[in-house]
Amino acid sequence: MLRLIRTGEAVTRADIGRVTGLSRPAVSLRVTELLDRRLIVEDNEGPSTGGRPPTRLAFNAAGGVVLVASLGASRAQIAVCDLAAGELARADLAVDVEEGPDVVLPLVMRTWEELLGDRPASLIRAVGLGVPATVEFAARRTESARIMASWTGVAIPPIIAERFPVPVFLDNDVNVIAIGEHRAVYAGQADDLLFIKVSTRIGSGVIAGGEILRGALGAAGEIGHIPVRDGGGVLCRCGNTDCLDSVASATAILRRLRSRGYEVKTLADVVALVRGGDAETMTVIRDAARMLGEVVASAVNILNPAVVVLGGDVAETFQPLVSGVREVVYRRSTALSTRNLRIERSRLGPGAGIVGCAHMILDHVLSPEAVDSPP
């Protein structure tokens, strides 16, 4: 019934009765329950066809809030959102996620408290985080051995629930970004999507049939740890050599330029070199694009997405990288898998993680099972 009201398929009690076949008393009882939980509101301003206009029902996005955080390796987007995934307050912070949960999580929780302001704690419906680690979603626990040791095996929900006693959801950071891009940009037009985040590290999120694909233990999408050819024997964090993450990420680009005598501290320095037409810098970017494109081409052959979205600092900063990936994918993937394939840059940018986190939470908070459970 809530879904019918949220989507506008049924906006009066009579509509609900016709669509569901429920009796008037049954409809009235369920509507009253939804009103009591502040999930819907009544609107008496509906159009009339003669006589007293029917009372219209509308989803109450202001009936609660969710706390969300999308953590990257070096930055975090933290927000309070309404029940329609709309941002009410937001903070973007520099963080070093490798300082570990004992440092990062208290910072996130303090920021939520600041963003909540005068809003009562009773409005908080749930909390959701995206973290740059492999996450066993069902167990709501990070599983990232050899990648970020301080986060390995951490059960984050109990830590958060001590301060905010509501359901807490956890997923990989690129998964929530993929959810955000899909829901906000491609819903209804592309239900098979591959999101590639090219930033300090490289990862991917896979939307298949409109749903995020997590795999048996949450390890789906670890595209950054696929070895590439001609990588130069670079040792990766995971212990293997020439992983995509170690040769084509922002970290790898900066390392290669420094090894060639360039004094570059951030991507902004690399941007200045590209804008100045520096040939060697462009060669490094093109090499990264080639290696990334080869791995993405294999993923396209396996997954056959309708769209590949490239996001993260590197993809959003360097158009030549996006063009290079596009060229390699169309050349190396099968003709059928690329017939209608689109390869695009992220449209949401850093905000995608917040949108995705909010939808991840709301899919559960507003599910029939959650709505039917005792308050």
TrEMBL record:
PANTHER family under this entry?
GLUCOKINASE (PTHR18964:SF173), ROK (REPRESSOR, ORF, KINASE) FAMILY (PTHR18964)
Instruction: List, alphabetically, the Pfam families matched.
Output: ROK
Family label? Belongs to the ROK (NagC/XylR) family.
Q: What InterPro entries does the entry give?
A: ATPase_NBD, ROK, WH-like_DNA-bd_sf, WH_DNA-bd_sf
Q: Which top-rank group of organisms is this from?
A: Bacteria
- What name does this protein carry? ROK family transcriptional regulator
